[in-house]
Amino acid sequence: MNTTALRFLSAALLLTFAACSYAPYPRAMYAMQQEEQPPPPGMNTERYERIDDNPFFTAKDSPLSTFSIDVDTASYANVRRFLEQGSKPPKDAVRIEELINYFNYKYPAPTGTSPFAVHAEVFACPWEPAHQLVKLGLKGREIDTTKRPAANLVFLLDVSGSMDAPNKLPLLKTALQMLTTQLREDDRVAIVVYAGASGLALPSTPGSQRGRIISSLEELQAGGSTNGAAGIQLAYRTAEEHFIKGGINRVILATDGDFNVGVSSDGELSRLVEEKAKTGVALTVLGFGMGNYNDSMLEKLADRGNGNYAYVDSAAEAKKVLVEQASGTLLTIAKDVKIQVEFNPSRVQAYRLIGYENRLLRSQDFNDDQKDAGELGAGHTVTALYEVVPVSKAPWGDAVGGQVDALKYQKNTVVSGGDELMTVKLRFKAPDANESQLMSFPIRDATTAASSDAHFAAAVAEFGMLLRDSPFKSKASYAQVQELASSAAGDDQYRREFLALVKRAQGMAD
Questions:
Q1: pTM of the full predicted structure?
Q2: Residue 478's Cα: distance from chain center in Å?
Q3: Domain boundaries defined on the chain
Q4: Which of 500, 179, 465, 488 is nearest to 317 (CA)?
Q5: Calculated CA dihedral for residues 354, 373, 456, 351, nearest 10 degrees
Q6: What are the pLDDT digits (tens) for 419-440?
Q7: Fold adopted by 58-87+96-143+333-394+415-509
Q8: Can you list the residues of the chain whose pLDDT is less than 50?
Q9: What are the φ/ψ torsions at residue 231 (nearest 5 degrees)?
Q10: Where are the alpha helices (DSSP H) in 354-401?
Q11: Are the C-beta atoms of 116 and 136 separated by less than 8 Å?
Q12: Cα-flanking dihedrals φ and ψ of residue 507, to 5°?
């Protein structure tokens, strides 16, 4: 081989090495990756974690119910996508708590120093009138966007071949351009992309350079296989390098979740994100697309990454999540928020928590500050519903499907507890704290006429049970859902949209 040929070969090898190192990210490398394509039309490989509805428990034998809050809304938008396309969603795609928490409720704002206020309401259960519903509501403190801390954001974007669809990468660009318009001059944004390899498409850039950020988003193209783990590692490293003490430090992952190169198992990726969350960098997950959508993976990542999870099926949903609710999406005001309810067996025969199946905690986890739980964003509301069987009604087994034999070794003594139905306790940490604070208050056994918010939350829960064909749906019906929701919809655009979805689902059921 002559000297010229050797020089040419050496130069080619150097260029190849430089391209593989991705600093900065060369778009030409897309062509060098093995192409990953969306599934063929009609082929569905979407993945959802199995959900089994929470059962009833007797208050005497199991008086404590403990769970982590959940502010995610992905399930509602995903369910909407199925219904608007003319098909019922898979039952495991329906997480009832996320349907309920998609909507805003008129809870009074907190006073004093607490980051949130707690509200409770007891009313008759629409689908089982002999039962009660207890609605617990949390309202996070609103933060003036002009007074929020500076933000250090890293957009971690999936640009693999599977994202080459109108409702994926193009919609992703639109969504993050909307968020970019909300930035202040003291904010910073970096863009990390990943396909077969990962790279820095945009170094950390001041929010004052919106045009540069938007141009970088516009230049993105889809191609290659999906090496999500490498991208996650680079994104967190970039966020750590520009960490703002006392500020918002967050990775925003936008993907269809179809990881197939490198570390790709649910367990490995969730452990990776969980470890990175300890650095003080939170995670927001935005899901896109259909056909190969991996809901199961994305929910786990958001949960383990001290973050939140939304599904973006339209530009309108992107506006809701990243513009209207930008403060709640980005700014955490309380972390590791846990709820523990103790039921009074002199008033409650049995109870069940509606939804939150994958957020349940052991009783002892409530006081364990090492146990991770959900985060509450500025202005966020969280709502949970319990279906309660009062002691004054028929034996609870007759209503909910069976009883257990009397226990041989347990005392049957029940302390009255007065007129208290239950006691609600909450634990939470300040965003920069390691020790939790405790709140506790009783709820009286006083059934009242339901508020409009209570009617609407009950309607959404009933809708979810119908979609899931829940064994506890009892006398639930789409007609009743329509009646309840209509009375509480008002001029709220999202509640009006819900009524249209109920009508669609009812048409499929008839």
A1: 0.88
A2: 26
A3: 58-87+96-143+333-394+415-509, 151-326
A4: 179
A5: 30
A6: 999 999 999 999 989 999 999 9
A7: Immunoglobulin-like (2.60.40)
A8: 3-36, 261
A9: -65, -40
A10: 396-400
A11: no
A12: -65, -35
